Amino acid sequence: MVKRYFPVMHVIVAGFILTGCQSIEISRWSGSWVDERSSDHGGDLRCVSRRLDETNWQATFSGFCGREFGYDIEMHGRQDGSAVKFDGEVDLGEEDGGVYTWTGVMQGNHFNGEYATRTGKAGSFVMVRY
After folding, report:
1. What is the 3-state secondary structure (H, E, C) of 57-108?
2. Half-sphere exposure of 72 (CA within 13 A, CB side)
3. How many CA atoms within 13 Å lie on the side-chain side of 5?
4. Structural fold of domain 24-129
5. pLDDT of the residue at 86
């Protein structure tokens, strides 16, 4: 799993160099997720998010659900006061539940959200910046 994320660091460093050493907003989050319909389905969750511009972010979510998982997704957010509110849809593939719709809010040191699938899965996540 570590090898999978190694190229991402090269991209981040290259982006930093190519933008003339401008500030790149990268945040690291840690917390947990829970499936609302199954009390034994949930666990640790981590996320590394990178703001690309005013409304676009790149994020890598990773954790454990019977096996380690890691998903790279694009997030679209809008500023609402001191918070950034996200909503979106992502297809994680048939093996991982298919299409998820989700909402989330980053505010201060907190990143919380909810998700649901077309197949009936639903849950939430709560993370803090570290």
Report:
1. EEEEEEEECCCEEEEEEEEEEEEECCEEEEEEEEECCHHHCCEEEEEEEEEC
2. 7
3. 12
4. Porin (2.40.160)
5. 97
More confidently predicted of 92 and 6: 92
Q: What is the pLDDT of residues 69-107, one digit of tens each?
A: 999 999 999 999 999 999 999 998 888 889 999 999 999
Rounded CA-CA distance 97/87 in Å is 18
Write down the domain spans for the chain. Answer: 24-129
pTM confidence score = 0.77
- Which candidate, 119, 105, 121, 124, places its Cα nearest to that of 49? 105
Report the candidate in 32, 18, 60, 59 with the shortest Cα–Cα distance to residue 125.
32
Structure tokens at 69: 């998982």
Tell me phi and psi for residue 11, to 5 degrees.
Answer: -65, -45
Whether the CB-CB separation of 124 and 112 falls below 8 Å is answered with: yes
